[in-house]
Amino acid sequence: MKILIAYTSTEGQTRKIVQFCADYLNAEGHTVELLPAADAHGTDLSRFDAMLLAASVHGGKYQKPMVRLASARTGELNQMKSAFLSVSLAAAGTDEDDWKGLRDVVDRFAAKTGWSPKTVMHVAGAFRFSEYDFFKSWAMRWIAAQKDEDVDPHEDKEYTDWEALRNTLDEWIAGGG
Questions:
Q1: pLDDT tens digit string along 60-99?
Q2: Among 10, 47, 172, 176, which residue's CB has the most CB atoms within a 10 Å radius?
Q3: Alpha helices, DSSP H only, in the chain?
Q4: Please, are residues 159 and 126 in contact by the beta-carbon 8 Å criterion?
């Protein structure tokens, strides 16, 4: 398959995740093109068999370049094999309220863009203290404390389950949507 992966990344974890996806899918024999969402607008999607869009949740929403891309290409996305990869810290936990919140974020994204991805992959992100300014670092430590997470503001802490992501990609490629 020829797959386009378009993404947005704020602190770099989503970029790391999509690079992993591209490397893995290439190793499985697929051809993958990886582009920031802002650069994917003029791409001829008819060249691709599938498209994976990836963005991270910040303040209950996704980055504007991803919203613009999905809105502009919704017709094509709804017609082709496509999936949405949503990166968040909440995906690392088991709290049902957090998971309901994640589903709500995706639902709002779908309503805003018109694209209803058949496949949604929720992937746990990371605390990227090396990328935060003072205020964001403080806010992220507060969030961690609310979830009884032990974090060191001088070290990044990754929650991404790479093996689970491999399995999710395999299921998507093998399945419909």
A1: 999 999 999 999 999 999 999 999 999 998 898 888 998 9
A2: 172
A3: 13-27, 64-72, 74-79, 96-113, 134-146, 162-174
A4: yes
